[in-house]
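Chapter summary example: a protein plus glutamine.
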Amino acid sequence: MSNLTDLTITQAITGLDNKDFTAVELAQSHIDAMAENKSLNAYITETPDIALRQAEASDKRRASGDAGALDGIPLAIKDLFCTNGVQTTAASRILDGFTPQYESTVTQKLFDAGSVMLGKTNLDEFAMGSSNTTSYYGNVINPWKRDSDNRDLTPGGSSGGSAAAVAARICMGATGTDTGGSIRQPAAFCGITGMKPTYGRCSRWGTIAFASSLDQAGTFARTVEDNALLLRTMSGHDPKDSTSANKDVPDFLAALDDNIKGKTIGIPKEYNIDGTPKEISELWQRGREWLENAGAKTIEVSLPHTQYALATYYVIAPAEASSNLARYDGVRYGHRAPEDDLTDMYEITRAEGFGEEVKRRIMIGTYSLSSGYYDAYYIKAQKVRRLISEDFMKAFEQCDAILTPTAPSAAFAIGDNEDDPIKMYLNDVFTVPASLAGLPGISVPAGLDANGLPLGLQIIGRPWDEENVLKIAGVIEKIANFTAIPKSVIKEAA
Ligand code: GLN
C-alpha cells in the first residue's frame, strides 16, 4: 500500500471519507516508509505506537460522523514543539531526555482536528542554522541528489527534518518554525511548499523559544492547498501567548481561487544580489512573467534597507537567544553534569549541553546586550529593524505582494559552508527581511537547476494577508507545474 504515501492531504481526506482506506492503513503505510528511510535521519523520535492509536480513534470518529478537519492525517512535528509525554529536544544535548508534561498550542490544535503524529523531526540545534548540520542527533540528509554526483546534500534548516520528511513521503505534512527563514529555505531545498504566517498568527505557547520577537510556527506540505489547510487549523488567538493576535482566522482555503487579475506584484530591486546564480535570477524573471500572464501587473519596488537585514537579524536573534537560553542550567531540564559544586554544575552542564553554533550565538548575544554595547548594537539593530519594516509598508502602498527567490542557491552538500559562519548566514538573505518585519511568506517549488535540484520562489505579503500570499502561490504552483520528485522516492514507489 506504499502509494498511499504519494497522496496529498486533501486527496487523503477524500479517500478516508470514501472509505477507500482507513486511517490505520494510512498511518501504517507511512510508518513502513519511515522504516525504509531511516538513513535520512529526518526524525529524532518516531512515535508509531501513538500514530496507530490516534489513527484507530480517528477511524472510529469518522465512522460515527465526527471527523475533524484533519482527521486521520499523519503529520510530523518539528522537535521544537512540546508534546505531552513525548521527548522534546530542540535537537540539543541540553534537552536530551526532556519529556514535557504539556502540549504546545499548535500541536494541540492539530490533534484536536484529528491528525496523527508520526514523530518529532530533526532540526538545527535550537533552530539555529540553515543546513540541519548543528543537531546533536546528527545531520538530516536531503532526499534529493545532484544529477552529477552522489554527495549527500543538506535539506536546509533549521526545519530540515520536517522538509526532508515531507519530500521523502514519510509524512503528509509537517510543522516548522521560521525565525529568519527556517521554513521557506528548507522548503525550497527539498522541492516542497512551506509557509510562514504573519508573526502572531500562530501561538508560540509550548514552542521552545529561540528569538521570541521573530519565532513563528508554520507549515510544510506538498501543495499550497495542503499548507492552507494545515495553517487554518494551527492559527488563532491563544490567551496563553501575549504575542498571539486576537484576529479572526480567515478560511485560507477559500482564498485559493486562482484569480489574481488586477493584483500588483512588487519586484524588489535590492534583491538582485551579487553572486546569485543565473538560474535563480532567470527563475525569478520567469515567475514574474507567469504572474503577468495570469493577469497580475508587476512593478519594480524598492526596499532600500535590505542590505542591512542580515546584520540586523544576526544581532537581534542572538541577543534574544542568549536571554531565552539562560534557563538551561541543568536544574530544571534535560542534561546535567554530575558536579558537586553548584557553579561547576551550571558551567559544565552548559559547556557540555550546547553545541558550537549555539554557544557562538549566546556569546554574541550576551555581548551585544551588555552594558556599554547595548545601545551600539542591540538598540541600533532595533532601529534598523523599524526602517526595514517601513520599507515594506511603503512598498505595499504600491503592490499587493512581493515576489523574490527563496534562497540564493539550491541545496548544498553537507560540509559545505561549514568553515565560515558568515557564508552560512548568507543563505537567509532573501528570507530574513520579511521575518524582521513579521510578514507572511511562502516558498513554492518553481523549477530545477542544471543539476536537477529544486529551486523555490517566495511570495511575501502584507501583515495578516496570508490569503493573497496563498492565492498567488497557488497560481505559481499551477503554472510552474513542478512535478519532479527525488529519485530515491521514485525507487521506493516502484
Ligand atoms: N538560518 C537562520 C538562523 O540560523 C534562520 C533560522 C530560523 O529561522 N530558525 O538563525
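Key point: Residues 2-259+443-454+466-493 form a domain with the Amidase signature (AS) enzymes fold (CATH 3.90.1300.10).
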